[in-house]
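Example record used in the benchmark description.
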Amino acid sequence: MAEPSTKFYCNYCQEELKGVRVKCIECSEADFDLCLQCFSAGAEIGTHLKSHDYEVLDNGAIPLMYEDWSSQEEMKLLDAIESYGFGNWEGIASNIGTKTAKQAMEHYTEFLVHSNIGKVTIPTSFDIKVEDHTGPIDGPLSPSLRSTLKPIEILIEEQQQLGFMPLRDDFEREFDNDSEKIVSQLQINLEDDELDAALRFAHVDMYTKLLKERQRRKQISREYSLVPSFFNSTKPQVLSSKPAKRKISEEESELRERMREFCQFQKSKEHEELFENMQREKELKVRIKELIRYRRNGITKLEECKEFDAARFKRDKRKEYKKKLAEKNSSKRTPTTRKEVKEERTPKNGREIAEDEFQAIKSTHGFNYLSEREKKLCSSMRMKASRYIMLKTIIVKDYLLRRQGISTRPRFPGNLNLTHRKRIVNYLTRSGWIKSN
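Model output (structure tokens):
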């Protein structure tokens, strides 16, 4: 946007253009501008024609929302608020140049905050529930060194065993117990240069981070009551009238182990609620699957579900009993006739095995369409007649296409043995079906 001091004149009537002007895009080298009156009359001068492309420009003098504020001043107001910050009206007014601090504040409040623009753009309530865990103050990953911790409720003997000092709320041996060596030898000298001072500041920053890490570990142990839980686990179990806790399944314990990493980001109560909600979600998914299975079987009432489950249980038990009975009968089956006893005791030789295989292949579909040599070939390869006819068709068709000059790639079955394929090709070559290359 052009500055207010820049003046523009109409190339046709020579009037000064203080507001909107029309600029010719095709006559841009001559910087051709027209006022609205000349443009609406279709003025043409020199090489400019009224059919040329144009664009409408504003030099910033036209008011947008209030007649005393030009568009240029509105833009300067918004830029100044972004640069100087909301509330620094003296700096904002100096950036505008033509308005006072009071005028800038009243105009912004009236036309941009309390107007329709403010109602649409400024939210009345914030529903964002995002918590910054990486903040420098009182965050779970960076707690404040001055924050108070929950006291540990343990006996004096247990305090002595841990080396815990309750009045100081401290331990004899802390996490990274030698971290004080980082700052123990630091000295401040007025003659130090900037590099030495920066190095000392870095040492202090490292020590502060270690103190915050100690505080974070203490906070997690207090929140989850790790110290009392440790001593309670080492004490002998005493019979009490309290109800026994629910036994945790192996799958549930594995899930708790995987979720342990999130303990540092949540409080104990929040972490337990998250785990219970996940378990509840899993149970609901299982229940939904059950209801879908009921619906697929035509059950639409909950009263019918019990009858369906009972009938399904009986059916499964019946199938399991029949399966075990069949396995038992097959394992204990004994020969009933002398022929079966003789066949069971006398092992078959190679010829008898070949005859059995030939009889099995003979009963397959398409066996009658084969020649005697092809029948013997199928019997030796233990191949069904229908499969042999399919392979023979593929090989002969591929040979005829190649004779016509058409390059093809035969599509043999993926489980075809390469040796069987070679034997079939050799047989077809010897029988005159195809010729060798």
